[in-house]
Amino acid sequence: MLRDRHTVLLALAVAVGWGCAPRAPDGPEPASAPPQRVVSLAPSLTETLFALGLGERVVGVTRYCAHPPEVRRLPQVGGHLDPSYEAIVALEPDLVVLIPSSEASGRLLSDLGVPVLEVDQHDVAAVLASVSVLAEACGVPERGAALRSAMEARLAAVAAAVAGRPRPRTVVVVSHEIGAGAVRSVWAAGPDTFYDGVLELAGGVNAVAEGLVQYPELSREGLAALDPEVVIDVVAGVEERGLDLDSIRAGWGALAELQAVRGGRVRVLVGEMMVVPGPRLPEMVAAVAGALHPELEGG
After folding, report:
1. In the list 167, 230, 260, 278, which could disulfide-bond 47, CB 3.0-4.6 Å?
2. Do 139 and 33 share a structural domain?
3. Closest CA to 281 of 147, 111, 186, 169
4. What's the pTM?
5. How many CB atoms lie within 10 A of CB 63?
6. How many CB atoms are closer than 10 A to CB 129?
7. Tell me: the pLDDT tens digits for 163-176?
8. From residue 212, how far is each of 19, 129, 171, 192, 292 by CA, in Å?
């Protein structure tokens, strides 16, 4: 049961585009006026639109879009991997925004005559660039410049705070399986992922080696072989999924072979902010920096 619940997080991570290959954004066809009816097919893009002050233009979102709270009152058009094209067309959007892993949906919508904008957010640099891309597409470039500048300033402040400090070898866990009271296996962020850039800014080093899979599954023995100094377990949707944080922490506590466990350096970071690569990126990086460098939390 716990495995089924926790693999939802991995699916969500894929759904918001982590692990997509780098890709230049494709712009919509030139329009005579900025779009006024926008459908978003990714939580990260929805958050960015609202952060740009464009919430009144958003007329449809996915079932996973949850921030800011008013998003929950908007019509839903299915999920990232199973959108309802009928529902999208019925909303009469003049723009649908999506991420590269929704490319097939974008092609179908384009064939139906719906303008589509593909926005890459696969790494930290792409998340920052996406602010400008969406702002330009919606005719508010000055808002994009201001939001991006603010995000960059906050990221720079975190990077400055961790500069010169030891950089612990870290495993970022995006999903895991617990059995018999112990963590049995995990899915961890590899080097070519969004979290790798987050770790770099937050003052850590990714303990997971380069491989063919961006989010490899690691057994308990595989974790022991890596023996990270820090484990960061990202957990979202706690209430919605009925997760028991005490059980998750106890599951890690059973892995005494890990120096991260013996040193009390397993941190469970809770909240959907931790799985959405959007405008709250600086808060995510700051949370990871605090987990890696607890001496900063009191500063």
Report:
1. 278
2. yes
3. 147
4. 0.86
5. 14
6. 18
7. 999 999 999 999 98
8. 11, 27, 17, 10, 27
